[in-house]
Amino acid sequence: MQVSVGKSTLELVQGDITQQDTEAIVNAANSSLLGGGGVDGAIHRAGGPQILEECRKIGGCPPGEARITSGGGLKAKYVIHTVGPIYRGGRRGEAGILASAYRSSLELASQRGIRSVAFPSISTGAYGYPIELAAPIALQTAMDYLQAHSEIEMVRFVLFGSSAYEAYEKALKGLLQSESAG
Ligand code: ADP
User: Fold this and answer.
1) Which residues are catalytic?
2) Pick the CATH number of 2-175 from 3.40.50.300, 3.40.50.720, 3.10.450.50, 3.40.220.10
3) C-alpha separations of 6 from 49, 147, 148, 149, 151 in Å
4) From the CB of residue 11, how many other CB atoms can be counted at a distance below 10 Å?
5) Which regions of the chain are under pLDDT 70?
6) Helices 162-180 and 131-148, interaxial angle, to 10°?
């Protein structure tokens, strides 16, 4: 599914983030930036040791912020590492931290002149954020950013598996509907 947001494009695809040809891909990292499982492990495996070497020099990243490295052997030239919230029931600022992780990643992309960015579904794996709650936050944050920043031409959400794709598709349709309702 693909929609226009201002002059830019927002896209949902089912697939593997490591295979994307966007200028940057985003890693759902942990605060140490020293690698982990899930999407993080997949990116380091596919991109090779150079990414981890650069992460070590950076020395960590607090939740809601983002850092950038090269893409190593990936098709993407850059990896933006961001840290989402660990979900603990929803009353500990998780939604704000999640939105901030997406926004910080996009701000970093803008600063570096990156025009296309692919995101995984941050925090909805090991960090336990229910995808039905995370998807509208992810999408709304991306749409708000694109509305104000046409220098980012394309944001793609790469959803791992059909149920994740369907959750994002449902959320996007819901947001578009509430937008057109006023
Ligand atoms: P977090 O710790 O932020 O929850 P995870 O990596 O555990 O991060 O999971 C985040 C999401 O990424 C999950 O929905 C998971 O299914 C998905 N995921 C795992 N591997 C990949 C991949 N190669 N490409 C895209 N998404 C992936």
Assistant:
1) 40
2) 3.40.220.10
3) 38, 5, 8, 9, 11
4) 15
5) none
6) 50
Strands 24-29 and 78-83 come out as parallel
Residue whose CA lies nearest to ligand 1 atom number 21: 39
- Say yes or no: CB of residue 160 within 6 Å of ligand 1: yes
Q: Can you read off the two tokens belonging to residue 134?
A: 């995370």
Helix (H) or strand (E) holding 155: strand 154-159
Q: What are phi and psi of 20, to 5 degrees?
A: -80, 145
**What does the alpha-carbon distance between residue 105 and residue 166 come to, in Å, rounded to a whole number?**
24
**Per-domain boundaries in the chain:** 2-175
Tens of pLDDT along 28-51?
999 999 989 999 999 999 999 999
Cα(38) to centroid(ligand 1), Å: 5
Nearest to 66 by CA among 42, 98, 88, 95: 98
Ligand 1 centre to CA of 105 (Å) is 16
pTM value? Answer: 0.98
Give residues with Cβ within 8 angstroms of 180, minimum separation 6.
none
Q: Is 178 exposed, middle or buried (0-12, 13-18, 19+ CB in 10 A)?
A: exposed
d(CA 150, CA 7): 6
